[in-house]
Design brief:
By secondary structure, this protein is α/β, with parallel strands linked by helices. Helix content is about 25%, strand content about 20%. The longest helix is centred in the N-terminal third of the chain and has 21 residues, at about 5-25. The protein starts with a helix and ends with a strand. The structure holds 3,4-dihydroxybenzoic acid and fe (iii) ion. Fe (iii) ion (FE) binds near residues 88, 209 and 211. 3,4-dihydroxybenzoic acid (DHB) binds next to helix 3.
Length: about 270
């Protein structure tokens, strides 16, 4: 007995693939180059690096399936839009008290010390249900890169779990934390996905972004990203993940020695 969903998907996949090959007059040599590319992606991938996912991302495929999936699951149009998870999530970030910082070990010895001070940012807001009611005890899981553009697990100079944390909302549904204004950075382009980008004369840059997974009882978890409106790549993301509703403006923060910038953002979760 054929798998029912596969029985639905596969004929369509084959039809589109064949139409594509006919449309471009695909040659054996070209098909063979694509097989090599996929094999290279697989060989390069491990726990720390998912090159096949990266290949899908520069094709816009992860963003597309994320959009299709979130639309199917949406119970309300007021929900915060989703964005791709990306390859650098870690599921076991430390739980931190509201108002604390995800920036670890910031001393003058750290190479990006000055930039981290200039980019220091206070993030706060509420987690709401689509009826507008605040959700207590929601979990806000947040991660971003260091000012050098590397996530902690890409960079042996950073402490474990640097720039990652999980926060629980209070009775008013509020979360608050210190982080950094995110910097733009290139997706890893030293492998087959990067080679393909160069052959296409495309750049590897993503606009500065902060990742979030927001979850709460009786609600659908939200995987999303916020983008800095002043970023030069915000209209030109190498992996096509930016959505207008997720573009935010950091404002100067007054009277707080811990942060030069602030951002207030409410996340709205759909019920399940
Ligand atoms: C990709 C996504 C990210 O969020 C990131 O930081 C790097 C790469 C990606 O889609 O490949
Ligand atoms: Fe990212």
């Amino acid at each position: 007995n054929a798998h029912p969903r596969l029985a639905q998907i596969f004929p369509s996949l084959v039809r589109h693939l064949h139409d594509f090959a006919r449309e471009v007059n695909l040659t054996v040599a070209e098909w063979s180059a694509a097989v090599d590319l996929l094999n290279d992606c697989g060989r390069m991938s491990d726990d720390r690096r998912n090159e096949t996912q990266l290949l899908c991302d520069i094709l816009g495929l992860e963003s597309l399936v994320d959009e299709i999936t979130s639309k199917q699951l949406a119970t309300s149009t007021t929900q915060t839009p989703s964005a791709i998870l990306g390859p650098f999530y870690r599921s076991d970030a430390p739980f931190l008290p509201n108002g604390s910082s995800i920036v670890q070990d910031l001393s003058p010895a750290v190479p990006w010390y000055e930039q981290a001070q200039a980019d220091s940012a206070f993030l706060s807001g509420r987690v709401l249900s689509t009826d507008g009611k605040p959700i207590e005890n929601a979990v806000v899981d947040v991660w971003h890169t260091a000012p050098n553009g590397l996530y902690e697990q890409q960079d042996s100079d950073q402490p474990e779990m640097n720039f990652r944390g999980r926060f629980r909302t209070d009775q008013q549904g509020r979360y608050a934390l210190y982080a950094l204004r995110p910097v733009p950075y290139p997706i890893p382009d030293d492998g087959p996905a990067g080679r393909l980008l160069k052959m296409l004369d495309r750049h590897p840059n993503r606009p500065g972004h902060i990742h979030f997974i927001v979850s709460a009882d009786d609600h659908r978890p939200l995987t999303t990203q916020l983008y800095d409106s002043r970023d030069q790549w915000v209209d030109n993301d190498a992996v096509f993940a930016v959505k207008d509703e997720l573009v935010v403006k950091f404002e100067p923060r007054e009277g707080d020695p811990e942060a030069r910038w602030e951002l207030s953002y409410d996340f709205v979760l759909g019920r399940c």
